[in-house]
Specification:
single chain; 490 residues; mainly alpha; disordered N terminus; disordered C terminus
């Protein structure tokens, strides 16, 4: 065996075995501490209102900012991962998350919470989660799909455990001391980051130190310099800045795909509209139950029920959607899950008894499992994988915008009407309309493409549809490491 082959085998050894499984365990814990954390904020909703004499709309800005930054910080996280590596970004995120929650325990106004627990903690959670998902792509090749599925169970575990812990600490210590303890818990993201040590590539370099590709803008500048242009010429400098800015936007925000790919356009608009109502039950379910006479401990248990059922239903949904029967049709499964989410909200409107709310949580959790398992799989179906990172950047920023404004606007409606049922009416409207829009639009798009391509390709040619299944199977171990992708979750 040659020295090069020996080196290649030696560097590939950490993948899919040994320390890789410790990294996977750290990723499970990371997802539980980051994505699972915002679900418990609703438990503190009433206490924060009384403490700061704030309205429903003012109080709901706090979890809205946290969730919006958690979802929309992907492009910034991707830039940091490329520059400093996954381990550094995960540990930086843990430090920011802990600092934000510790600082929030000393806040004197609700607006200070927006900055500390909302912006700082949300940004830290974004860094830790997305860099933790990225590093799995380097540690796993053969078992990459399994690793991502196992890591996603951390979200469900977080949904189950955070509300129970929050209610217990709130009863024993109050919200300020609880936030202080949360800061210490979130600092454990730094421990998870320390476990994610750099893995050596076949070339002998570390994955964190990969040299970025030369930008086309720099090559254009060199060409003009070779023709005698001065590097300090104002026109040349301005042209270079514009070129680099355009290159950056095209790399992280795929506006060209949005304009040219009708499937991506429909899906992005539909999900963005859906997010206006998707997060409302998580924010207002506990206050709604307490307002209608349910004990605080039982009200907190409702969120845990949603998370517990997610642990089992989400993997089953992923397996079901992977069946060949649903190849190219996952968008319809996704639309059906969103429609079920919207229809389930009417259960809360009928009655606010605890037994009825449990039934609501069971149905909502099943529908949410479908939405969570299919969101990014459908995106991979409508966009080529070589542009997935760019498409995901624009996708997450747009959905984070509606995640930000949805709960406060609904809170304003509750302040005006003094009726929490309008939360669920609003959520149902956005979810049902989004489901119908996506389902009917993709059906019409598919029929249009069939008619267009019928005379050009055989009926058995899978490439005849614009919305088609993209291959996501991992290649051989000898391939170069995957590009850095920032992936979030709902």
């Amino acid at each position: 065996m040659s020295q090069g082959e020996a080196a290649g085998h030696g560097t590939a050894k950490p993948q899919d075995q040994g320390w890789a499984w410790m990294v996977l365990l750290a990723a499970v814990v990371l997802q539980g501490m980051t994505l699972g954390f915002p679900c418990c904020i609703g438990i503190f909703f009433t206490d924060l209102q009384h403490e700061f004499q704030a309205s429903n709309s003012e109080t709901s800005w706090f979890p809205s900012i946290m969730v919006a930054v958690l979802h929309g910080g992907g492009p910034l996280c991707s830039i940091l991962v490329k520059r400093f590596g996954c381990r550094f970004v995960v540990m930086l995120g843990g430090l920011l998350s802990g600092l934000g929650m510790v600082s929030s325990s000393f806040c004197k106004s609700i607006s200070q919470l927006y900055l500390t627990a909302g912006l700082i903690t949300g940004l830290g959670s974004c860094f830790s989660f997305q860099a933790g998902v990225t590093v799995l792509g380097y540690y796993f090749v053969r078992w990459r799909t399994l690793a991502n599925a196992v890591a996603s169970t951390g979200v469900s575990l977080g949904f189950t455990l955070w509300p129970l812990l929050s209610q217990y600490l709130l009863d024993e210590m109050g919200w300020r001391n609880t936030f202080l303890i949360f800061g210490g818990i979130l600092l454990n993201c730094c421990v998870c980051g320390a476990i994610m040590r750099p893995i050596q590539l076949a070339s002998g370099s570390l994955l964190q130190s990969a040299k970025p590709e030369e930008e086309p803008g720099s090559r254009a500048e060199e060409a003009q310099l070779s023709n005698g242009a001065s590097p300090h010429h104002p026109t040349l400098q301005q042209h270079t800045k514009r070129t680099k800015c355009f290159q950056m936007l095209q790399k992280y925000l795929a506006f060209d795909i949005f304009c040219q790919n009708k499937g991506y356009q429909i899906y992005t608009i539909g999900v963005t509209w859906m997010m206006m109502g998707f997060a409302l039950p998580h924010v207002y379910l506990v206050p709604y139950a307490i307002h209608n006479g349910v004990e605080e401990r039982k009200a907190a248990l409702l969120i845990s029920i949603i998370g517990f059922i997610n642990i089992f239903i989400r993997p089953l949904t992923g397996l079901l959607s992977g069946h060949r029967v649903f190849t190219g049709r996952r968008i319809y499964l996704f639309s059906l899950a969103v429609l079920l989410c919207g229809l389930s909200n009417f259960i809360c409107v009928i009655s606010a008894e605890f037994s009825v709310l449990i039934l609501y949580c069971v149905i909502l959790s099943i529908a949410m499992s479908g939405v969570g398992a299919l969101t990014f799989q459908v995106l991979m179906d409508v966009v080529e994988m070589d542009r997935f990172s760019s498409a995901l950047g624009l996708f997450t920023i747009l959905e984070s915008t509606t995640l930000l404004i949805g709960p406060p606007l609904t809170g304003l409606l509750v302040d005006i009407t003094s009726d929490f049922r309008y939360v669920f009416y609003t959520s149902s409207f956005f979810l049902i309309s989004a489901a119908l829009f996506m389902g009917l639009s993709f059906c019409a798009l598919e029929k249009k493409n069939k008619l267009r391509e019928a005379s050009k390709a055989h009926l058995d040619n899978p490439s005849r549809y614009q919305y088609s299944e993209m291959s996501t199977e991992p290649k051989a171990v000898s391939q170069s490491p995957p590009a850095v992708e920032y992936i979030t979750s709902i």
